[in-house]
Amino acid sequence: MITLGDYLVVSAFLFTIGLAGVMLRRNLIVILMSLELMLNAANLSLVAFSRFRVGVDGLPDYNAQVFVFFVITVAAAEVAVGLALLVALYRARQTTDVGDITSLKF
Amino acid sequence: MSPFLFWIFAVFTVIFGAAVILNRNPVASALSLVVSFLGLSALFMSLDAFFVGIIQVLVYAGAVMVLFLFIIMLLDIRAEERRQINWLAAVGGLGVAVILLIQICVVIRHFQSARSTFSSLARSTTDDVWNIGRLLFTNYNLPFQIIGVLVLVATIGVVLLSRREPR
Question: Which of B1, B32, B104, B154 could bond B46 through an S-S bridge, CB–CB 3.0 to 4.6 Å?
Answer without folding.
Answer: B1
